[in-house]
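Please, structure for the following, as C-alpha coordinates.
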Amino acid sequence: MRRRLRLWGGGLLLAAAAVLSMFWLGGYKLPGPLPADDEQTGISGRHVIKFSYVVAENTPKGLAAQRFADLVEEKSGGKVQVQLFPNGTLFTEPDEQAALARGDVQMIAPAFSNLSTRMPEWSVMDLPFAFRSEEAVEEAFSGEVGSLLFKRLESRGMIGLAFWGNGFKQMTANGKPLAHPEDFSGMKVRILPGPIVDAQFRALGATTADIPFNSVYKAYESGRVDGGENTITNIYSKKFYQVQKYMTVSNHAYLGYAVLMNRSFWESLPPDVQAIIQEAMRETTGWANESAREMSRKELAEMRSGRWMNIADLQEPERREWMALWEPLYGQAEKLAGRELMDAVRRLRSKYGGGVERAE
Protein backbone atom coordinates (compact mmCIF):
# COMPACT_ATOMS: atom_id res chain seq x y z
CA MET A 1 0.00 0.00 0.00
CA ARG A 2 2.77 2.41 0.95
CA ARG A 3 4.65 1.44 -2.21
CA ARG A 4 1.55 2.27 -4.35
CA LEU A 5 1.19 5.66 -2.62
CA ARG A 6 4.85 6.43 -3.23
CA LEU A 7 4.46 5.49 -6.90
CA TRP A 8 1.25 7.62 -7.24
CA GLY A 9 2.88 10.60 -5.58
CA GLY A 10 5.97 10.20 -7.72
CA GLY A 11 3.82 10.08 -10.83
CA LEU A 12 2.20 13.40 -9.93
CA LEU A 13 5.59 15.00 -9.47
CA LEU A 14 6.78 13.70 -12.83
CA ALA A 15 3.58 14.97 -14.55
CA ALA A 16 3.93 18.40 -12.97
CA ALA A 17 7.56 18.57 -14.01
CA ALA A 18 6.62 17.65 -17.57
CA VAL A 19 3.98 20.41 -17.77
CA LEU A 20 6.36 22.99 -16.37
CA SER A 21 9.07 21.95 -18.80
CA MET A 22 6.66 22.59 -21.67
CA PHE A 23 6.31 26.25 -20.55
CA TRP A 24 10.04 26.66 -19.89
CA LEU A 25 11.13 25.07 -23.20
CA GLY A 26 8.43 26.79 -25.26
CA GLY A 27 6.57 23.59 -26.01
CA TYR A 28 3.21 25.15 -25.11
CA LYS A 29 1.70 28.51 -26.00
CA LEU A 30 -1.34 30.18 -24.47
CA PRO A 31 -4.22 30.53 -26.93
CA GLY A 32 -4.24 34.34 -26.51
CA PRO A 33 -3.39 37.20 -24.15
CA LEU A 34 -4.53 37.00 -20.57
CA PRO A 35 -7.67 39.09 -19.93
CA ALA A 36 -7.01 42.51 -18.36
CA ASP A 37 -9.01 43.95 -15.50
CA ASP A 38 -10.97 47.00 -16.70
CA GLU A 39 -10.33 48.71 -13.38
CA GLN A 40 -6.59 48.69 -13.97
CA THR A 41 -4.24 50.26 -16.43
CA GLY A 42 -0.79 49.26 -17.45
CA ILE A 43 -1.35 45.47 -17.58
CA SER A 44 -2.12 45.59 -21.29
CA GLY A 45 -1.75 49.34 -21.80
CA ARG A 46 -5.54 49.77 -21.59
CA HIS A 47 -7.09 52.78 -19.87
CA VAL A 48 -10.70 53.01 -18.68
CA ILE A 49 -12.45 56.34 -18.11
CA LYS A 50 -15.75 56.39 -16.24
CA PHE A 51 -17.88 59.32 -17.42
CA SER A 52 -20.92 60.15 -15.26
CA TYR A 53 -23.70 62.60 -16.16
CA VAL A 54 -27.31 63.12 -15.19
CA VAL A 55 -29.20 63.68 -18.45
CA ALA A 56 -30.59 61.21 -20.98
CA GLU A 57 -28.71 59.72 -23.91
CA ASN A 58 -30.82 61.65 -26.46
CA THR A 59 -29.95 65.11 -25.12
CA PRO A 60 -27.10 67.28 -26.43
CA LYS A 61 -24.82 66.20 -23.57
CA GLY A 62 -25.75 62.56 -23.88
CA LEU A 63 -25.12 62.54 -27.64
CA ALA A 64 -21.83 64.40 -27.18
CA ALA A 65 -20.67 61.92 -24.55
CA GLN A 66 -21.39 58.99 -26.88
CA ARG A 67 -19.56 60.63 -29.77
CA PHE A 68 -16.57 61.38 -27.56
CA ALA A 69 -16.45 57.77 -26.34
CA ASP A 70 -16.61 56.46 -29.91
CA LEU A 71 -13.86 58.80 -31.11
CA VAL A 72 -11.55 57.93 -28.22
CA GLU A 73 -11.94 54.22 -28.84
CA GLU A 74 -11.41 54.66 -32.57
CA LYS A 75 -8.37 56.93 -32.27
CA SER A 76 -6.74 54.76 -29.58
CA GLY A 77 -7.37 51.48 -31.34
CA GLY A 78 -9.36 50.29 -28.35
CA LYS A 79 -6.61 51.00 -25.83
CA VAL A 80 -8.71 53.73 -24.18
CA GLN A 81 -12.31 53.02 -23.26
CA VAL A 82 -14.81 55.63 -22.08
CA GLN A 83 -17.60 54.01 -20.05
CA LEU A 84 -20.77 56.13 -20.04
CA PHE A 85 -23.19 56.40 -17.10
CA PRO A 86 -26.15 58.62 -18.15
CA ASN A 87 -29.28 59.56 -16.22
CA GLY A 88 -27.45 59.75 -12.90
CA THR A 89 -27.06 55.96 -12.77
CA LEU A 90 -23.62 56.23 -11.20
CA PHE A 91 -23.70 59.58 -9.38
CA THR A 92 -26.37 62.26 -9.11
CA GLU A 93 -25.94 66.03 -9.30
CA PRO A 94 -25.23 66.56 -5.57
CA ASP A 95 -22.64 63.76 -5.53
CA GLU A 96 -20.71 63.90 -8.77
CA GLN A 97 -18.19 66.63 -7.91
CA ALA A 98 -17.15 64.88 -4.70
CA ALA A 99 -16.95 61.59 -6.60
CA LEU A 100 -14.62 63.19 -9.15
CA ALA A 101 -12.43 64.63 -6.39
CA ARG A 102 -12.15 61.16 -4.76
CA GLY A 103 -11.32 59.52 -8.06
CA ASP A 104 -14.43 57.31 -7.98
CA VAL A 105 -15.17 58.61 -11.46
CA GLN A 106 -12.75 60.15 -13.93
CA MET A 107 -15.03 62.49 -15.90
CA ILE A 108 -18.16 64.52 -15.26
CA ALA A 109 -19.92 67.32 -17.15
CA PRO A 110 -21.92 69.34 -14.60
CA ALA A 111 -24.07 72.33 -15.39
CA PHE A 112 -22.56 75.68 -14.47
CA SER A 113 -25.10 76.13 -11.68
CA ASN A 114 -24.05 72.89 -10.03
CA LEU A 115 -20.41 73.94 -10.13
CA SER A 116 -21.26 77.27 -8.50
CA THR A 117 -22.36 75.51 -5.29
CA ARG A 118 -18.71 74.56 -4.62
CA MET A 119 -16.96 77.17 -6.75
CA PRO A 120 -18.88 80.46 -6.54
CA GLU A 121 -17.01 82.01 -9.45
CA TRP A 122 -18.98 79.79 -11.83
CA SER A 123 -22.13 81.73 -10.94
CA VAL A 124 -21.16 84.32 -13.59
CA MET A 125 -22.31 81.84 -16.23
CA ASP A 126 -25.83 81.96 -14.77
CA LEU A 127 -26.22 85.73 -14.97
CA PRO A 128 -29.43 86.69 -16.80
CA PHE A 129 -28.97 88.22 -20.23
CA ALA A 130 -25.17 88.10 -19.91
CA PHE A 131 -24.91 86.32 -23.26
CA ARG A 132 -27.53 87.46 -25.74
CA SER A 133 -26.56 85.31 -28.74
CA GLU A 134 -24.90 82.06 -29.71
CA GLU A 135 -21.88 84.12 -30.81
CA ALA A 136 -21.58 85.63 -27.35
CA VAL A 137 -21.81 82.19 -25.75
CA GLU A 138 -19.13 80.79 -28.06
CA GLU A 139 -16.81 83.69 -27.26
CA ALA A 140 -17.38 83.16 -23.54
CA PHE A 141 -16.48 79.49 -23.90
CA SER A 142 -13.40 79.92 -26.07
CA GLY A 143 -12.17 83.29 -24.83
CA GLU A 144 -11.13 85.03 -21.64
CA VAL A 145 -14.11 84.03 -19.50
CA GLY A 146 -13.67 80.32 -20.17
CA SER A 147 -9.90 80.50 -19.75
CA LEU A 148 -10.17 82.17 -16.34
CA LEU A 149 -12.73 79.64 -15.12
CA PHE A 150 -10.69 76.63 -16.24
CA LYS A 151 -7.53 78.05 -14.71
CA ARG A 152 -9.20 78.18 -11.30
CA LEU A 153 -10.13 74.49 -11.50
CA GLU A 154 -6.56 73.25 -11.26
CA SER A 155 -6.10 74.09 -7.59
CA ARG A 156 -9.22 72.01 -6.88
CA GLY A 157 -7.85 68.86 -8.46
CA MET A 158 -9.73 69.16 -11.76
CA ILE A 159 -8.84 69.74 -15.40
CA GLY A 160 -11.22 71.54 -17.74
CA LEU A 161 -11.40 69.77 -21.11
CA ALA A 162 -14.20 71.65 -22.89
CA PHE A 163 -17.42 73.60 -22.68
CA TRP A 164 -20.48 71.88 -24.12
CA GLY A 165 -23.63 73.84 -24.81
CA ASN A 166 -27.23 72.80 -24.36
CA GLY A 167 -29.10 75.99 -25.16
CA PHE A 168 -30.81 79.07 -23.86
CA LYS A 169 -33.20 78.70 -20.95
CA GLN A 170 -36.94 79.29 -21.23
CA MET A 171 -39.56 79.82 -18.53
CA THR A 172 -42.37 77.30 -18.04
CA ALA A 173 -45.42 77.24 -15.77
CA ASN A 174 -48.51 75.16 -15.25
CA GLY A 175 -50.96 77.78 -14.06
CA LYS A 176 -50.47 80.92 -16.15
CA PRO A 177 -48.35 82.61 -18.81
CA LEU A 178 -45.17 84.35 -17.64
CA ALA A 179 -44.61 87.70 -19.31
CA HIS A 180 -44.23 90.33 -16.57
CA PRO A 181 -42.38 90.15 -13.25
CA GLU A 182 -45.64 90.17 -11.31
CA ASP A 183 -46.65 86.93 -13.04
CA PHE A 184 -44.01 85.13 -10.97
CA SER A 185 -45.27 86.46 -7.65
CA GLY A 186 -46.23 83.67 -5.26
CA MET A 187 -44.96 80.90 -7.54
CA LYS A 188 -42.71 78.09 -6.38
CA VAL A 189 -40.19 77.25 -9.06
CA ARG A 190 -37.70 74.45 -9.51
CA ILE A 191 -34.11 75.56 -9.91
CA LEU A 192 -30.66 74.14 -10.29
CA PRO A 193 -28.71 74.98 -7.14
CA GLY A 194 -26.79 78.22 -7.39
CA PRO A 195 -26.81 81.63 -5.72
CA ILE A 196 -27.52 83.65 -8.86
CA VAL A 197 -30.34 81.41 -10.10
CA ASP A 198 -31.96 81.52 -6.66
CA ALA A 199 -31.63 85.30 -6.45
CA GLN A 200 -32.98 85.68 -9.99
CA PHE A 201 -36.33 84.12 -9.10
CA ARG A 202 -36.58 85.74 -5.69
CA ALA A 203 -36.17 89.11 -7.38
CA LEU A 204 -39.29 88.25 -9.38
CA GLY A 205 -41.24 87.42 -6.21
CA ALA A 206 -41.06 83.61 -6.46
CA THR A 207 -39.77 81.02 -4.02
CA THR A 208 -37.44 78.25 -5.13
CA ALA A 209 -36.89 74.53 -4.70
CA ASP A 210 -33.64 72.77 -5.58
CA ILE A 211 -34.75 69.51 -7.24
CA PRO A 212 -32.47 67.06 -9.09
CA PHE A 213 -33.07 66.93 -12.82
CA ASN A 214 -34.42 63.38 -12.91
CA SER A 215 -37.06 64.25 -10.29
CA VAL A 216 -38.38 67.38 -12.02
CA TYR A 217 -41.16 65.72 -14.02
CA LYS A 218 -42.76 64.26 -10.89
CA ALA A 219 -42.38 67.59 -9.09
CA TYR A 220 -44.30 69.32 -11.90
CA GLU A 221 -46.88 66.55 -12.12
CA SER A 222 -47.58 66.48 -8.38
CA GLY A 223 -47.76 70.27 -8.07
CA ARG A 224 -44.81 70.37 -5.70
CA VAL A 225 -43.57 73.25 -7.84
CA ASP A 226 -45.47 75.48 -10.26
CA GLY A 227 -42.82 75.99 -12.89
CA GLY A 228 -39.18 76.52 -13.64
CA GLU A 229 -36.58 77.26 -16.29
CA ASN A 230 -35.03 74.86 -18.75
CA THR A 231 -33.80 74.49 -22.29
CA ILE A 232 -35.84 73.43 -25.28
CA THR A 233 -34.02 70.11 -25.57
CA ASN A 234 -34.53 69.25 -21.90
CA ILE A 235 -38.20 70.24 -22.01
CA TYR A 236 -38.60 68.08 -25.11
CA SER A 237 -36.59 65.02 -24.02
CA LYS A 238 -38.17 64.85 -20.57
CA LYS A 239 -41.66 65.66 -21.92
CA PHE A 240 -42.16 68.52 -19.51
CA TYR A 241 -44.77 69.83 -21.96
CA GLN A 242 -47.07 67.13 -20.57
CA VAL A 243 -47.04 68.72 -17.11
CA GLN A 244 -46.42 72.41 -17.94
CA LYS A 245 -49.03 74.28 -19.96
CA TYR A 246 -47.16 77.52 -20.67
CA MET A 247 -43.74 78.38 -22.00
CA THR A 248 -42.18 81.79 -22.49
CA VAL A 249 -39.33 81.75 -24.99
CA SER A 250 -37.20 84.19 -23.02
CA ASN A 251 -33.62 83.09 -23.78
CA HIS A 252 -32.81 84.79 -20.49
CA ALA A 253 -29.80 82.64 -19.56
CA TYR A 254 -27.68 79.86 -20.99
CA LEU A 255 -27.38 76.25 -19.85
CA GLY A 256 -23.98 74.78 -20.54
CA TYR A 257 -21.66 72.18 -19.12
CA ALA A 258 -18.01 72.10 -18.14
CA VAL A 259 -16.44 68.79 -19.15
CA LEU A 260 -14.04 67.97 -16.32
CA MET A 261 -11.48 65.28 -15.55
CA ASN A 262 -9.80 64.32 -12.30
CA ARG A 263 -6.41 66.05 -12.39
CA SER A 264 -4.42 63.20 -10.82
CA PHE A 265 -5.89 60.74 -13.30
CA TRP A 266 -5.12 63.08 -16.20
CA GLU A 267 -1.52 63.51 -15.11
CA SER A 268 -1.13 59.73 -14.79
CA LEU A 269 -1.94 59.22 -18.47
CA PRO A 270 0.88 58.88 -21.00
CA PRO A 271 1.33 61.90 -23.31
CA ASP A 272 0.06 59.97 -26.34
CA VAL A 273 -3.18 59.08 -24.53
CA GLN A 274 -3.63 62.70 -23.41
CA ALA A 275 -3.20 63.78 -27.04
CA ILE A 276 -5.87 61.30 -28.18
CA ILE A 277 -8.33 62.54 -25.56
CA GLN A 278 -7.70 66.20 -26.47
CA GLU A 279 -8.12 65.55 -30.19
CA ALA A 280 -11.34 63.59 -29.64
CA MET A 281 -12.65 66.30 -27.35
CA ARG A 282 -11.96 69.08 -29.88
CA GLU A 283 -13.78 67.18 -32.60
CA THR A 284 -16.67 66.31 -30.30
CA THR A 285 -17.11 69.84 -28.99
CA GLY A 286 -17.42 71.48 -32.40
CA TRP A 287 -19.93 68.86 -33.51
CA ALA A 288 -21.85 68.85 -30.21
CA ASN A 289 -22.36 72.59 -29.91
CA GLU A 290 -23.63 72.88 -33.48
CA SER A 291 -25.87 69.85 -32.97
CA ALA A 292 -27.33 71.37 -29.79
CA ARG A 293 -28.29 74.52 -31.70
CA GLU A 294 -29.92 72.49 -34.45
CA MET A 295 -31.80 70.28 -31.97
CA SER A 296 -33.16 73.35 -30.19
CA ARG A 297 -34.43 74.87 -33.43
CA LYS A 298 -36.02 71.64 -34.62
CA GLU A 299 -37.67 70.70 -31.32
CA LEU A 300 -39.04 74.19 -30.67
CA ALA A 301 -40.60 74.18 -34.12
CA GLU A 302 -42.13 70.77 -33.40
CA MET A 303 -43.56 71.94 -30.08
CA ARG A 304 -45.02 75.04 -31.72
CA SER A 305 -46.62 73.15 -34.59
CA GLY A 306 -47.92 70.42 -32.32
CA ARG A 307 -49.41 72.95 -29.91
CA TRP A 308 -48.24 70.86 -26.99
CA MET A 309 -47.95 74.04 -24.88
CA ASN A 310 -49.08 77.62 -25.02
CA ILE A 311 -45.87 79.21 -26.29
CA ALA A 312 -45.20 82.95 -26.30
CA ASP A 313 -42.04 84.93 -27.12
CA LEU A 314 -40.75 87.44 -24.59
CA GLN A 315 -40.96 90.92 -26.10
CA GLU A 316 -38.35 93.63 -25.67
CA PRO A 317 -40.45 95.83 -23.32
CA GLU A 318 -41.03 92.79 -21.12
CA ARG A 319 -37.33 91.90 -21.19
CA ARG A 320 -36.51 95.38 -19.94
CA GLU A 321 -38.94 94.87 -17.03
CA TRP A 322 -37.19 91.63 -16.06
CA MET A 323 -33.72 93.09 -16.44
CA ALA A 324 -34.52 96.15 -14.33
CA LEU A 325 -35.01 93.75 -11.40
CA TRP A 326 -32.02 91.60 -12.31
CA GLU A 327 -29.37 94.26 -12.82
CA PRO A 328 -28.28 94.15 -9.13
CA LEU A 329 -27.34 90.48 -9.58
CA TYR A 330 -24.22 91.61 -11.44
CA GLY A 331 -22.91 93.27 -8.29
CA GLN A 332 -23.69 90.12 -6.32
CA ALA A 333 -21.83 88.01 -8.85
CA GLU A 334 -18.75 90.21 -8.61
CA LYS A 335 -18.54 89.54 -4.88
CA LEU A 336 -18.65 85.80 -5.64
CA ALA A 337 -16.35 85.71 -8.66
CA GLY A 338 -13.98 88.63 -8.26
CA ARG A 339 -13.35 91.73 -10.33
CA GLU A 340 -11.16 90.16 -13.03
CA LEU A 341 -13.72 87.59 -14.09
CA MET A 342 -16.66 90.00 -13.90
CA ASP A 343 -14.80 92.57 -16.01
CA ALA A 344 -14.39 89.90 -18.70
CA VAL A 345 -18.14 89.15 -18.56
CA ARG A 346 -19.01 92.83 -18.73
CA ARG A 347 -16.82 93.32 -21.80
CA LEU A 348 -18.66 90.52 -23.56
CA ARG A 349 -22.01 91.87 -22.47
CA SER A 350 -21.12 95.31 -23.76
CA LYS A 351 -19.99 93.86 -27.10
CA TYR A 352 -23.14 91.82 -27.72
CA GLY A 353 -25.73 93.70 -25.67
CA GLY A 354 -27.67 92.53 -22.66
CA GLY A 355 -28.12 95.40 -20.26
CA VAL A 356 -31.16 97.52 -19.55
CA GLU A 357 -32.02 99.41 -22.70
CA ARG A 358 -34.03 102.59 -22.50
CA ALA A 359 -37.25 102.77 -24.46
CA GLU A 360 -37.29 105.54 -27.05
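Confidence is low (pLDDT under 50) at residues 1-10, 12-40, 356-360. Residues 50 and 105 are 5 Å apart (CA to CA).
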